[in-house]
Structure formats: structure tokens, C-alpha cells
């Protein structure tokens, strides 16, 4: 059996190691099973906390206001003890000494804190983890996950703290989107998909509200998976907004996303939407910045319209309805109208008639955006949002819907969407320091 000792030392400017503080001691024994290998989770956290405490205590000589003379009378300030202030690292919590200063003349005093000196008491690495965990799962589950990592329940991981962090960082991203395109390579063709997702509302006067999402990517960045037409987008930029602002922000963010993907004046865009006018409006806002836009009514949504109709009650009308779908698949809109009108003339049941008329109206309103989908498929051209992962599903549904029957306000869900869009776009990986330090920057005194 052998003993171990973990010691903390400091090297002076003269090169000498001083202050041999013992952080941990223990015995190394022959292990009986895997549980005996190395240090336990709780022991690792405790050692990390003690090391952090030592480093913070040495750093504490810098924890004071950067003033030497009284701002009121000009006398030289003197030290006047310390305040113990909270500081939260990724896995550990600390009380850090912050120095007070006092004027011997007029008795003016400086009583700073970690908050006043640095703009917050949480390390940016902790805020980063908070954002990542709370934007992908509920606040309560995120809190439990973070506490498990730290081995114990921490006040800084509470649901209220997580909610505040998401609001602070998400709203900062919303108001300060990164627009640097200096390193972006220009591209000749882009795909833009815009869709909306309905979120259950807290307000009693409305059952739900709609958030809009967009994704921009290059055709060559879709990697097919197996024999299916479905694929994965390898590189993309996303945008999302839940604001009720006449689509102002979603248009601005979609433009930025397109520019980050290489859109220039000579870029040709293929746009796919579900047919909603607000989605097409977002696409139209890009016209002034590119060469052309080819608008395609999303085949996935067309197919869902037919699926929702179901059977019509007879083999003859069912075959005719299938031929309507075949007509659209081959881009023959006039033949579709001819056949749908024939079906409508034969149906008497009101509920089914309403479904058929809604389908007809849907195609009528988007007829200029119907293409030969069969030809697109043969040429391996994008014609449906279902070709790649659903942006609404990845940005909205996975976090904002589920078995919990969650209810939201626009103001509550909007910052979450900003973080999720940044993560999906890889902007978070590149810019999280800028986002967090910007959101928590010290307010000028």
C-alpha cells in the first residue's frame, strides 16, 4: 500500500516555489473492482474546488477598483479589509475575497464585488454550458443534468438562473447577430427553406402562436443517407424568430444567414416553402440581394395535404384523387384542376367537400410555384424540405413541444430559438465567447 499527496505550490518572480499547501491525501490500495480505480467523482470535484480556491486567493490581490485616490477629496485611499463574494466556476462554487478601500479624509469608501468588477459572478464557461443544456432540454432537466455533473445540487444551476441566462444571452444574440462575412466564399447556388411552427401559448386569448425558421445551405452540402431520398445537411446557417414584428427580424436574420453561406448578386436561389404567405414574404425579401429566386411549393406539404384527405368512399374517386397527386408530381397544374373539379362534383358529404376545396385553394394560391417534381428527383435537385432534416423539428419542436405540454410566451421562446439557431449553424462554436461576454459586459460606472 502506498500513500499519495496532492500539493499546491506557487512560483515567485525570483523562481522559487513557495507555500506547499496540501490539497488532498490518501492511500493507494489494490483495487477489488472498477469502483476502486482512481478517484471517485466527489473526490475529483473536491480537489478541483480546493485548487480553484487557492488560485482565486492568489488572484484576489487584483480584486479591487482601479483607483488609488478618493474621487471626492483626492486623498490617497487605503485598504479596508475584504468582502467575501460569490464566484461560480463550471463545476464548483467559491467565496472570493474582494478588497475594500477607504479614504482617511472624507471617509468615502469603495466596496466592490465580483459582479461590479467583472459584470457577473458566473464564469463564461459555466454560462456556455448553461446555454447549451437549457436550450436543448427543459429547464428542470437541464438543472438536474448540470447538478449531476457537479455531483451536488447548486443554487447557480437552478431553473430560475438557467431561464435568466437563456434570456440574457439569447436576446443579446437577437440584437447583435454576427455579420462578419470576410472569410466567406461566394457561391453560385443556394437552397433556402422557410417554414413555420406553432407553439402552445401561455396567453388565454390565443391557443398558439407561430415562430418562423429558415435554413440556408449549398446543394452540394446535402449528403444522401442510404437508398432513401432523405439526407443530412453537412453545413448550413439557420435563423429563427418568435417576435411579432411584421417579420422584420426573421428577414434580417435570413439575409445574414444567406450572406454567410456565400450569397452575392450573382447567386441563384432555390426557395422551398409550405405555401404560407408569411414564408414566401421572407423569401421575397432576398430578391434585391441575389440574381434570381426559383420558388418551389414544398412537395412534402403537398403530399401531407393529400394524406389528410384520406379515402373518398369509392375506388373510382380514390383513383381520381391519386391521379390529381400524380398530375402535380409531374407539374401539370391544369390537369390537376380538371380532375379535382371532377371529384368535387361527385362528392356530397360536407366534411370531405371542405377538405377537397381547401386542397384546391391551396394549389390555386401556389400554382406558380409548382414544378415537375419527378424531373427534379431524377436530376437529384432539391424539391422538398423532407430531403434534409426538418428545420422546424430541429429548432422548435425538439425543445418547445413534447409530453410536458409546455406553454410559452413569444418573449420566452425567442431567446431559446436564437441559441438553438446559432448552435445549428455552427455560429455558437465560433462566437460563443463574443455572445456571452457581450451579454454580461460590465456596465460603465
Give an overview of the whole structure.
With 445 residues, this protein is α+β, with helices and mostly antiparallel strands. It has 3 domains: 2-118, no CATH class; 124-177 and 427-439, no CATH class; 189-424, no CATH class. Helices cover 42% and strands 21% of the residues. The protein contains 15 helices and 12 strands. The strands form 4 sheets. Strands 10-7-6-11-12 form a 5-stranded mixed sheet. α5 (159-175) crosses α15 (427-439). The longest helix has 19 residues, at 41-59. The mean pLDDT is 91.
Task: Put the structure in a nutshell.
This protein is of the alpha+beta class and 445 residues long.
Order of helices and strands: EEHEEEHHHHEEEEEHEHEHHHHHHHH
The whole-angstrom Rg is: 30 Å
Average pLDDT taken over every residue: 91
Give the strand order of the largest sheet, numbering strands 1, 2, ... along the chain: 10-7-6-11-12
Number of strands: 12
Structural class: alpha+beta
What is the count of helical runs? Answer: 15
Approximate strand percentage: 15-25%
Q: Any low-confidence stretches, pLDDT <50, length ≥5?
A: none
Count of discrete structural domains = 3
Amino acid at each position: 500500500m502506498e500513500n499519495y499527496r496532492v500539493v499546491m505550490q506557487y512560483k515567485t518572480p525570483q523562481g522559487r516555489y513557495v507555500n506547499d499547501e496540501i490539497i488532498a491525501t490518501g492511500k493507494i490500495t489494490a483495487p477489488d473492482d472498477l469502483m476502486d480505480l482512481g478517484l471517485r467523482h466527489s473526490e475529483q470535484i473536491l480537489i478541483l474546488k480546493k485548487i480553484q480556491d487557492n488560485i482565486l486567493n492568489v488572484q484576489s490581490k487584483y480584486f479591487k477598483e482601479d483607483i488609488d485616490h478618493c474621487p471626492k477629496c483626492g486623498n490617497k485611499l487605503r485598504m479596508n479589509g475584504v468582502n467575501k463574494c460569490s464566484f461560480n466556476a463550471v463545476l464548483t462554487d467559491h467565496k472570493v475575497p474582494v478588497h475594500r478601500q477607504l479614504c482617511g479624509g472624507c471617509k468615502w469608501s469603495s466596496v466592490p464585488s465580483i459582479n461590479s468588477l467583472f459584470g457577473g459572478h458566473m464564469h463564461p464557461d459555466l454560462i456556455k454550458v448553461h446555454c447549451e443544456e437549457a436550450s436543448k432540454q427543459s429547464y428542470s432537466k437541464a438543472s438536474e443534468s448540470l447538478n449531476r455533473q457537479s455531483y451536488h445540487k447548486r443554487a447557480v444551476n437552478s431553473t430560475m438562473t438557467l431561464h435568466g441566462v437563456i434570456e440574457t444571452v439569447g436576446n443579446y444574440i437577437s440584437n447583435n447577430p454576427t455579420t462578419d462575412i470576410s472569410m466567406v466564399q461566394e457561391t453560385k447556388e443556394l437552397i433556402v427553406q422557410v417554414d413555420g411552427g406553432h407553439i402552445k401559448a401561455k396567453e388565454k386569448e390565443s391557443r398558439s402562436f407561430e415562430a418562423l425558421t429558415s435554413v440556408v445551405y449549398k446543394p452540394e452540402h446535402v449528403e444522401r443517407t442510404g437508398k432513401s431520398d432523405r439526407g443530412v445537411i453537412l453545413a448550413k446557417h439557420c435563423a429563427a424568430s418568435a417576435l411579432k414584428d411584421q417579420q422584420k427580424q426573421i428577414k434580417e436574420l435570413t439575409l445574414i444567414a444567406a450572406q454567410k453561406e456565400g450569397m452575392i448578386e450573382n447567386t441563384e436561389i432555390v426557395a422551398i416553402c409550405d405555401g404560407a404567405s408569411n414564408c414566401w414574404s421572407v423569401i421575397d425579401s432576398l430578391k434585391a440581394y441575389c440574381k434570381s429566386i426559383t420558388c418551389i411549393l414544398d412537395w412534402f406539404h403537398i403530399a401531407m395535404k393529400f394524406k389528410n384527405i384520406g379515402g373518398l368512399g369509392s375506388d373510382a374517386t380514390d383513383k381520381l384523387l391519386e391521379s390529381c397527386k400524380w398530375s402535380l408530381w409531374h407539374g401539370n397544374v391544369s390537369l390537376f384542376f380538371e380532375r379535382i373539379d371532377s371529384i368535387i362534383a361527385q362528392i356530397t358529404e360536407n366534411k370531405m367537400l371542405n377538405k377537397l376545396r381547401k386542397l384546391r385553394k391551396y394549389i390555386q394560391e401556389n400554382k406558380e410555384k409548382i414544378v415537375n417534381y419527378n424531373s427534379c428527383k431524377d436530376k437529384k435537385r432539391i424539391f422538398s424540405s423532407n430531403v434534409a432534416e426538418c428545420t422546424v423539428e430541429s429548432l422548435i419542436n425538439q425543445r418547445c413541444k413534447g409530453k410536458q405540454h409546455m406553454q410559452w410566451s413569444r418573449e420566452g421562446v425567442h431567446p431559446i430559438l436564437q441559441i438553438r439557431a446559432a448552435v445549428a449553424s455552427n455560429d455558437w462554436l465560433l462566437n460563443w465567447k463574443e455572445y456571452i461576454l457581450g451579454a454580461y459586459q460590465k456596465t460603465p460606472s
